[in-house]
Amino acid sequence: MGPGDLKQALSWLPPEEAEELLVGFDTSDDAAVYKFDDTYALLQTVDFFPPVVDTPYLFGQISAANALSDVYAMGGKPLTALNLAAFPCSLGLDHLGEILKGGHDKVKESGAVVVGGHTIQDNEPKYGLSVTGIVRLDEVVTNSNVKAGDVLVFTKPLGMGILASALKRGIVTEDDIMPAIETAATLNRAAAEAMMEVGVNACTDITGFGLLGHLKEMIAVNGLKATIEAEKIPLWELAIEIAIKGIIPGGARDNQAYLGDSVVFKTKTAYPPEMLFDPQTSGGLLISVPEARLQALLAALETRGVGTRAVIGRIDEGAPGIIEVV
Ligand code: CO
Ligand code: CO
Ligand code: CO
Predict the structure, then answer these.
(1) CATH class of residue range 150-325
(2) Is the pLDDT of residue 101 over 90?
């Protein structure tokens, strides 16, 4: 669901007032943070969606990596996961089995365990996980604690939404987009460990609202301004070619419409600007790091084999909540 529709639906809910709830849904953060004792907090998050690729095993991997990512984005460690699956039995149970196996293998790689789940019959398959994690109270990384002077680092190329919709329409094959599929199936664990080692101000993972949609959530609370350097954004080359032909997912246009005047283009991008709003599945971490620790973060990412370490912009005082693309 797009950010505008979601906001409207959530407006029906009264604010939660539990003292132990340190982060709820009001700041659009990646996971809820619930104080457990004087040292630890629980992290809870859930994500599920229809297939983004054809091969069921790969879909399971991507969906699990995406769900686990919300725990990593908060600086936490995943502990347990519950499967959520909707499935038409006409597709064959081996198909469902492959999806679950893909998810299971990713959860195992994360060091967490699958402890159960729930499955319903549905015309369109859907799969995802509810993940519970743990984080030290003094190490919680929220999406909104950005500070003036921070630099923004991003850890996966953009364009997965465009590639997945082109795959659905038969414009590309799974083999054509395999590098993007493998990247989407890659856990954000290594990137998260690097950021925890260095110490950063804020982080979120880039998913359905696109790069600029999630960046907008980061600057909304502290009333700061973000600047994005258009030519520094890592993009899948094939996604650029497809977007140039005008093949853009509806979700990208919804995200762009929702952000409206909060995004100011000061330059003409060398690629279709809709790419900056493209909904990602299991996208990279967007990390807001004090400039003095930038080099340490880049080195820590490199040491852990995180291939994409793009310095894409910064946070400053200025027009509150505005994103300038330069
Ligand atoms: Co998230
Ligand atoms: Co999520
Ligand atoms: Co049940």
Answers:
(1) alpha beta
(2) yes
Q: What pLDDT, on a 0 to 100 scale, did the predictor assign at position 322?
A: 98
By C-alpha distance, which of 218, 214, 200, 228 is closest to 321?
218
What CATH superfamily is the domain 14-139? PurM-like, N-terminal domain (3.30.1330.10)
Cα distance between residue 193 and residue 191, in whole Å: 6
CA of 159 to the centre of ligand 2 (A): 18
Q: Are 130 and 206 in contact (CB under 8 A)?
A: no
Q: What is the mean pLDDT of residues 278-304?
A: 98
User: What is the Å distance from ligand 1's center to 71 Cα?
Assistant: 8
pTM of the model: 0.96
Tell me the ligand closest to 85's alpha carbon: 3
- Measured from the alpha carbon of residue 73, the closest ligand is 1
Q: What is the mean pLDDT of residues 91-98?
A: 94
How many angstroms is it from 37 CA to the middle of ligand 1?
25
Q: Cβ atoms within 10 A of the Cβ of 308, count?
A: 16
Distance 73 CA to ligand 1 centre (A): 7
Looking at residue 276, its pLDDT comes to 98
Find the 268 Cα to ligand 2 centroid distance in Å.
Answer: 31
CA of 131 to the centre of ligand 3 (A): 16
Domains 14-139 and 150-325 share a fold: no
By CB atoms closer than 10 A (0-12, 13-18, 19+), residue 145 is middle
* Residue ranges of domains in the chain: 14-139, 150-325
Expressed in angstroms and rounded, the spacing between residue 67 Cα and the centre of ligand 2 is 6
